[in-house]
Amino acid sequence: MGRFTPKKLNKFLLFKLPSAYFSGIRVTSINDKEAIAKVRHQWINQNPFKSLYWATQGMASELVTGILVMKQIDKSGKKISMLVTHQTGTFTKKATGKITFICKDGDKIKRAINQTIATGEGQSLIMVAEGFDEENESVSRFEYEWSVKVK
Fold this sequence. Notes:
By secondary structure, the chain is an alpha+beta fold.
């Protein structure tokens, strides 16, 4: 079953990223190509405008990119550092109800990790995570520049 299951990742959230856990963010799916997390708008994670606070959306979106990075590093068997070096976010619709964040950039991070292993040089890549409401309409889109390098 592996180390990267939704149950194990949600336990990781509780102990290592408690603000994400207590905001209601939960990993629902992960494989080599994509990761999915969901969060429901509720009192604990709302803004004054009665929608999902931007920081909660940021935590969920960074999580789905970051767990793909962690999974590929683990699969490589190498010690590789990972760091977000830049981030942008765009908000297109009020986020209410259950919001699903998806990153489909597993292949991109795999290539970057293979490249840093082959060359010993750090690699940077942009990973995208998008949040969708229950009508499958985009509410936000985040881009994270991840840097990876063999230690």
